[in-house]
Specification:
20% strand, three-stranded antiparallel β-sheet, 3 helices, 86 residues
């Protein structure tokens, strides 16, 4: 009996640890590498550390470089299947 209680507690703690350690990114949250600084100095795909187009363009101002969508994000393999809201 005592062993069954200990196993049940261990299983519960393990399950809560696994559930608590899984983190999901919010859809509204900008991704760090969404835009790339591109041009002669930066190359292609360039410096891809910007989460917004505005951030990238501010960094590019005065350099003659421009900004574009990160090709690794733009051409990433899309998930298959349908999305259902519960």
């Amino acid at each position: 009996m005592r062993r069954n209680v200990s196993l049940a507690i261990l299983a519960t703690v393990s399950a809560l640890t696994v559930v608590g350690s899984v983190s999901t990114a919010s859809a509204a949250e900008p991704v760090q590498d969404s835009y790339c600084l591109q041009g002669r100095r930066a190359g292609y795909p360039g410096n891809c550390q910007f989460s917004s187009y505005q951030q990238c363009m501010i960094t590019a101002s005065g350099t003659g470089d421009g900004c574009g969508i990160n090709p690794m994000r733009a051409f990433a393999q899309q998930r298959r299947g349908t999305y259902r809201v519960r």
